[in-house]
Write a structure and sequence with these properties.
The chain is 69% helix and 0% strand. The protein is built from 46 helices and no strands. Helix 44 runs parallel beside helix 46. The N terminus and C terminus are likely disordered.
């Protein structure tokens, strides 16, 4: 296709911009020179254009004449022109043969072989225009361009384009875009991609649109060389000009966006092309699916997959595999399984990548059994699990706490000749630590250290878990081992050990670690400071906690919401709820957005301090700020109001909670039941208990213990024992507290045999009595006249190294006084003093009042 170029407004060409020294006929030809050039017989003196040494001339292969069917011809140069042909003469001769392309080509080939011939640009450009003007000589023009570009003797691409345009205009050749497309293609094919880009840009600047096949070839060549920014740069130019592209262009540019990590741009480019009505192909759709999978957007990926099928295209196995992977990442297991089934039904067997993805999806959804079944299925089907497959199934078992199965796969993996990665080792160690299998975890850890595979994450996992369990000394040993092995502690390592020391209350050690960390070049982050602030609050050191906060601000570290919440909670726990409320207002001014939990901390603090009105004031502030109270908020309020004997207001809060559509949880129900039980209002306690059952909640041991204790305090052991039997039938775990309440109640009712049976049952379960149980036994037995058995209780306490208390001695002393054994009563009093126990008012009340009572009785009896 030929297009006429409008007159150029480009600035005059500058010789200085040429990369190689050669004459480009940049200056216009004078009238005399032009006349001489156009008349070969003219005797006018030819101007000398250049005396610079010329580069090697363009030389065609020896067979080129035969190949293009050129007749041989000889031209004779004037003997007097020793310096060689002049550019003006060449131009004039070529122009005189512009309608005879074969003759012009023979002359050009003869001229290039002459001594001193230079590969000057303008004659070459004119030769190209002559050839392109003849339909039968296009192939020769392409060959000349290819040879010219690969020889490396040409000027810059921009200058060559400009000279072609200039020659077309000056010598009235019709501008044919094929020359420029051949040139662009030659640069791309020869691997001169920077020159190809320059050529493309200059063509665009000259308002010449390259043909899209040539553009695609250039884009592909750039993509192969991973010149992604250049691909996207050309794409931007095409888009801004509204150039017509085809499906292959879309595919190349989308692929470039994906390589550059610009998934959204790739997706939008596809949508725009689709909306424009461009006929896309399977490759473009496949690339769009890959973009959707990268996000991941499994819904879009599935939709595009269905569109491909409707158009009759069969998606590749790799494409379907990618979509299944995207579905798994978004936990869209239903679609993933459906695609897998379709894949198999179409005759494509499930591959290892799909199977591995599905296994991961299953265990992430909490369905480890399906993952294990699929593993067995692929093994029996002939697939050989690889390193990734084993890693996935091991991680799944570790997360589910199935450490025996995880160890089995770990061993199987090693037997298959696959060396576990540090990721696998860390998964197993984390799983063992979560399962509290310390010995096995330590063994795996030591093996990892000895083999040199352990990394910072391995050590961090051990340090964190040990610190969490309060085993700070063991964590410190792991720390020293890490340093000795040459593994540099990270900020996470320091934070974990600092957390351990803070939980143990060793704030000086935690502070020294902070200094050590900073000396090593690591900067403490917001997590570090928040841990220390929390540690100081738990230690009760408010000033040091707030001082650490000020240090953090001074170091330019922005507090997190966790930091603010830690300060608010710490102040409230230490009885400074008013200060916490004031600080929260300051934090809000700095950008902190209080949560429901923040308000809950302050409400709970005020209630524990006994300032109910302040707590209700914070509750109202919370509602006015648009923060909806949650179940925990109401539970705190109901509990606090009940404890302050504001049961009416507590019930009002309960009704308000229900009006807002909030359902009570087991904690809220338990709080109400406990409040009614303490008030000995077992009627309302029973109503709340029944409501709890009606809404489908299961009472826990705390609720049952409150109810049992409430009925015991009323002397209604029948109801208490009925609840106990219900606990047993429903499998609700119970322990010493339940047994203590029941045995105490039974002894008070004189049911010694039943109490003894429960006590025997308790011991059979391995539940050992504490001082409270022993006290209840001593009182109960003494009140029932079982002094010898009561005395044995004191002996059992000595055997179990449980210190006897004043209450036990008071019961025994009162018992012996009632029996009239004053000597034993006073002996027990002396024994109590020998043990270092201080008698209380009850003790002296028994000793004094009952002694006088006993003496008065005896005096009265003797007088009678």
């Amino acid at each position: 296709m030929r297009t006429r170029l409008a007159p150029s407004s480009t600035a005059p060409w500058r010789i200085s911009s040429i990369r190689t020294q050669r004459c480009l006929c940049s200056a216009p030809i004078s009238h005399a020179q032009e006349a001489s050039a156009l008349n070969p017989n003219s005797t006018a003196e030819q101007p000398e254009l250049s005396r610079n040494p010329m580069p090697d001339s363009l030389v065609f292969p020896e067979k080129s004449s035969a190949e293009i069917g050129e007749p041989r011809c000889e031209f004779t140069a004037p003997v007097s022109r020793k310096w060689g042909l002049g550019q003006t003469e060449m131009i004039a001769t070529l122009l005189s043969r512009r309608n005879e392309p074969d003759s012009a080509l023979r002359y050009f080939r003869w001229a290039e072989k002459q001594p001193g011939f230079a590969s000057i640009v303008d004659p070459f450009c004119i030769m190209l225009w002559i050839l392109i003007g003849s339909q039968g000589h296009h192939r020769i023009a392409r060959y000349m361009l290819n040879h010219y570009v690969t020889s490396g003797s040409d000027p810059s691409a921009r200058i060559l384009v400009d000279r072609l345009v200039n020659c077309s205009r000056r010598f009235q050749f019709e501008l044919d875009s094929r020359v420029f497309n051949y040139l662009l293609n030659s640069y791309a094919r020869s691997g001169r991609l920077i020159d190809a880009i320059d050529c493309f840009n200059r063509l665009i600047e000259s308002d010449i649109d390259p043909l899209i096949p040539n553009v695609n070839f250039l884009l592909s060549a750039l993509a192969r060389e991973n010149m992604i920014p250049e691909v996207l740069g050309l794409a931007g130019i095409l888009d801004s000009r509204g150039s017509e592209c085809n499906a292959f262009t879309i595919h190349i540019i989308m692929t470039a966006y994906l390589k550059d990590g610009k998934v959204d741009e790739a997706e939008q480019y596809f949508k725009k092309a689709k909306a424009s009505g461009l006929e896309l192909d399977a490759a473009a759709y496949t690339t769009a699916i890959q973009a959707a999978c990268r996000k991941p957007n499994s819904v879009m990926a599935c939709e595009l997959l269905n569109e491909m099928r409707k158009m009759g295209w069969i998606p590749s196995e790799g494409t379907i595999t990618s979509v299944i992977g995207a579905c798994v990442k978004q936990q869209n297991m239903e679609s993933a399984i459906k695609l897998k089934d379709e894949m198999i039904s179409s005759g494509t067997p499930m591959n290892l990548v799909v199977a591995t993805s599905l296994m991961k999806g299953f265990y992430l959804n909490g369905d480890l059994d399906s993952a294990l079944n699929l593993f067995d299925k692929i093994v029996h089907g002939g697939l050989v699990p690889n390193k990734i497959t084993y890693s996935v199934i091991i991680e799944g078992c570790c997360r589910a706490g199935k450490m025996e199965k995880a160890s089995e796969f770990y061993t199987q993996m090693k037997l298959a000749g696959i060396h576990p990665s540090v990721y696998d080792v860390n998964s197993v160690i984390r799983g063992l630590l979560r399962a509290h299998l310390w010995e096995e975890a330590s063994k795996q850890f030591d093996e990892a250290v000895e083999s040199g595979i352990a990394n910072a994450f391995t050590y961090n996992d051990m340090i964190y878990r040990l610190c969490k369990e309060g085993k700070v000394d063991e964590a410190s040993n792991v720390w020293h081992k890490m340093v000795n092995q040459g593994v540099v502690p990270s900020i996470v390592s320091y934070n974990n050990l600092i957390l351990g020391h803070c939980r143990k209350g060793s704030m000086d050690l935690a502070s020294s670690l902070l200094s050590e960390m900073q000396e090593s070049g690591l900067k403490a982050n917001v997590v570090t400071h928040s841990i220390l602030i929390d540690g100081y609050f738990k230690k009760g050191e408010i000033e040091r906690a707030l001082g650490m906060y000020d240090q953090m601000i001074g170091r330019g570290i922005s507090p997190s919401d966790y930091t603010y919440t830690t300060i608010i909670n710490g102040l409230c726990k230490l009885g400074h709820s008013s200060e916490a409320r004031d600080m929260m207002k300051t934090f809000v001014e700095k950008g902190f957005v209080p949560t429901c939990m923040s308000y809950n901390c302050i409400i709970d603090g005020f209630l524990k301090e006994g300032t109910v009105n302040s707590a209700l004031g914070v509750y109202r502030d919370m509602c006015e700020c648009g923060i909806s109270p949650n179940v925990f908020t109401y539970t705190i309020l109901i509990d606090g109001l009940c404890k302050s004997n504001n049961i009416v207001l507590a019930l009002k809060m309960l009704n308000e909670m229900r009006k807002k559509g909030l359902d009570l949880d087991i904690v809220a129900y338990g709080t109400l039941i406990n409040a009614f039980c303490k008030r000995r209002d077992m009627g309302n306690a029973r109503k709340v208990f029944n409501e709890l059952l009606e809404v489908g909640l299961s009472p826990n041991s705390a609720v049952y213990n409150n109810m049992i204790n409430g009925f015991k305090n009323l002397g209604n052991m029948e109801e208490a024992l009925a609840l106990y039997k219900r606990m047993v039938n429903e499998g609700i775990p119970f322990g010493l507290e339940t047994y203590t309440t029941l045995i105490d109640g039974l002894l008070k009712e004189g049911k010694i045999v039943f109490a003894s049976e429960l006590y025997t049952e308790m011991l059979a379960k391995g539940i050992m009595p504490d001082d409270i149980m022993h006290t209840a036994l001593a009182h109960g037995l003494c009140n029932n006249g079982q002094l010898e058995n009561a005395r044995k209780v004191l002996e059992e306490m000595d055997k179990r190294s449980i210190a006897a208390n004043v209450l036990v001695y008071n019961a025994l002393i009162a018992g012996y006084f009632n029996e009239g054994n004053l000597q034993e009563a006073f002996r027990l009093h002396d024994e109590m003093l020998d043990r270092g126990l201080t008698p209380d008012d009850k003790t002296y009340d028994i000793l004094v009042s009952r002694k006088f009572k006993r003496n008065g009785y005896r005096q009265g009896a003797s007088s009678i």
